[in-house]
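Input chain follows. Return structure tokens only.
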Amino acid sequence: MAISGFWYLYFDIVVNRKTFPALITTATLIEQKMSEKLKKNQEELTARRDSEYVRARAVADQGVHRNRSQRQCDRRKIKADADAEDTKDYQEFFE
């Protein structure tokens, strides 16, 4: 059905409401069902988008924590090496 046919049918239904009460009721029910289906699809998409955001955020946070712990480990190694060198210099001083 072409667009002009759609508008003709729509106009025919609107103008002849008294002639087609069952068709009007059916059209209203179809419209309600479609709006409910659209609302349900929108809720599903919102839930999926939110879960993907949470998952992406968790991965990003995991990377941040991994980097932080790696830097902390590197910092401890550097401090341990410096302390070992200081201890060696201290021992050599008193020999």
